[in-house]
From TrEMBL:
Name of the protein in question: Uncharacterized protein
Organism expressing this protein natively: Mycena pura
């Protein structure tokens, strides 16, 4: 209000009228398409260099359909007709419901359950030619998967589950639709990708020396583990576990020992010290009444200091940092 020179307050009703004039409406937000990471370099590289060219090639041997669902016949390349199956997962909640509906003006208020309730995940394939994934000819197998996600329920849909489902689906479509070539398309979800068992990952390494192996996933409800693959440094192998002739034979060296072997331990300690100093410096800036922009400016100017000088407010004013 002060920004526009208005000194008097306005009523809530007037504020609502202003919002409507500006194009705002009081309603639930519309749901759109997720776009997180769509333009990341690795995503665009795979999309433009592999996915789109491959899909374009496959579509030359697929049937096209009109908006009414009728096939549009035209020239096709020689070879088997291609059926493209798209894979996806959906989660449904026990308390799913429309938030807006038509109610009689005299209808009493209805109590609803709090929260979304328990969830059920469904993972399946669908194609424009045959619809949802088929069952096997004997009716005993299906690629459709149901899961009650949660730590204390069925767990979570992992890459191993994705691979198992894909193998079942390939067997079934080969049996049910043997006259076609089948292609399966997955979205770029993290559960669809997996590191090799035992692959290097600094996120999982413990700091100290201990008996340790990295987890690789559950088999029959039990977590399996394996030793992490050895590393290389300056072109030379660097074992992550002590050799058999060492007093601590077979134990994982730990991040501290690995960094010491690489001559990086002191550098890592310096980084931690710099980070701690930066945190203290920002805390000191806020305690002196600085805002975020001022604190960032002061942190850059007094790099390496844990606290800011008492003259910081005057310096900010002279630098016109508000």
């Amino acid at each position: 209000m002060e920004k526009h020179g208005i000194t008097r307050t306005i009523s809530i009703r007037t504020a609502r009228r202003y919002l409507r004039v500006l194009g705002y409406r009081f309603m639930e937000p519309k749901k759109g398409q997720y776009a997180d990471g769509h333009e990341r370099e690795d995503v665009t590289s795979y999309r433009d260099g592999i996915y789109v060219p491959r899909l374009t090639e496959l579509q030359r041997r697929t049937w096209k359909y009109s908006r009414d669902g009728l096939p549009e016949y035209g020239p096709h390349r020689d070879g088997k007709r291609v059926i493209i199956w798209y894979h996806d997962e959906s989660i449904f909640y026990a308390h799913d419901r429309r938030r807006r509906n038509w109610y009689h003006k005299d209808a009493p208020a209805k109590l609803y359950q709090k929260g979304d309730g328990h969830s059920l995940m469904v993972a399946d394939f669908v194609s424009q030619d045959f619809g949802w994934s088929p069952t096997s000819l004997d009716g005993t197998r299906t690629a459709r998967r149901f899961l009650k996600p949660g730590k204390n329920r069925d767990g979570y849909f992992t890459c191993d589950d994705i691979c198992e489902q894909a193998n079942v689906m390939m067997d079934i479509v080969t049996e049910v639709y043997p006259d076609f070539e089948h292609a399966f398309v997955y979205d770029n979800a993290t559960t669809h990708k997996k590191r090799a068992d035992g692959s290097l990952s600094a996120r999982k390494m413990p700091k100290g020396t201990k008996e340790w192996e990295t987890e690789t996933g559950k088999v029959n409800g039990k977590m399996t583990k394996t030793k992490m693959t050895d590393a290389t440094f300056n072109g030379q192998p660097q074992p992550l576990y002590f050799p058999s002739d060492h007093p601590q034979a077979g134990l994982f060296k730990g991040m501290a020992v690995i960094l010491q072997e690489r001559g990086l331990y002191d550098a890592a300690k310096k980084l931690l010290a710099d980070f701690a100093n930066r945190c203290l410096k920002f805390a000191d800036a806020y305690s002196k009444g600085l805002n975020g922009r001022q604190a960032a400016w002061a942190a850059r100017k007094y790099r390496g200091h844990r606290v800011l000088p008492e003259s910081i407010l005057r310096e900010l004013e002279e630098a016109e940092i508000y």
